Amino acid sequence: MKQLLLIRHAKSSWEAPLRDFDRPLTSRGIQDAHLVSSNIINQIPKSYLLWSSAAKRASETAMIFAQNIGFPLDSIIFKQELYTFDEQQLEQIIKSCPDEFDHLIVFGHNEAITNFVNSFGNIFVDNVATAGFVNIIFDQHSWKLIQNGVTKKVVFPRDLN
Fold first, then answer.
1. Per-residue pLDDT band at 16 (split at 50, 70, 90)
2. pLDDT at residue 17 above 90?
3. Which run of H or E residues covers position 4?
4. How far apart are CA 25 and CA 58, in angstroms?
5. Domain edges within the chain
6. Cis (ω within 30 of 0) for the bond into 111?
7. pTM exceeds 0.90, yes or no
8. Neighbour count for residue 138 (Cβ, 10 Å)
């Protein structure tokens, strides 16, 4: 069995004249990341890998979640290739996870996350909101073979306010 926890980065700012990659979280994004991470602690397995897009908004979201779930910040693996909006590239990255790890947490971007959730989970999600959390369980024993997962939990900030 494999467990995948997907988290879309929290709300980010378009105000500063920055490259997309360098956009930081807004104050609402920071609040939403704290809100969701505090409410999904019971969904977090005992051991796991934590991967994040290297983009500023995703890495800031990952650090907030890590702090709130008690994961060491220096153990977050920042992956340049997770800065993708394409679900096929996201799928390839997830399927590259070493099989000795049964639990993977990934922080990334839309459209990739919503499309992946709808391709691999069994509950249709119109749009994974910013700071949105989706927990999918797969019956396969190899990440390379994952398919037809069961969506166990979907949490968006608006569900918690």
1. confident
2. no
3. strand 2-8
4. 9
5. 2-160
6. yes
7. yes
8. 20
CB 132 within 8 A of CB 86: no
DSSP letter, residue 23: P
pLDDT class for 23, splitting at 50, 70, 90?
very high
> How confident is the model over 42-91, as pLDDT tens digits?
999 999 999 999 999 999 999 999 999 999 999 999 999 999 999 999 99
2-160 CATH pick, 3.30.465.10, 3.60.160.10, 3.40.50.300, 3.40.50.1240: 3.40.50.1240
Give the span between the Cα atoms of 11 and 161, in whole angstroms: 16
Are 110 and 8 spatial neighbours (Cβ–Cβ below 8 Å)? yes
Q: Do residues 155 and 39 lie in contact, with contact meaning Cβ atoms separated by under 8 Å?
A: yes
To which residue do tokens 């700012």 refer? 13
d(CA 124, CA 146): 18
Task: Determine the distance from the C-alpha atom of residue 157 to the mean position of all C-alpha atoms in its chain, rounded to a whole number.
Answer: 14
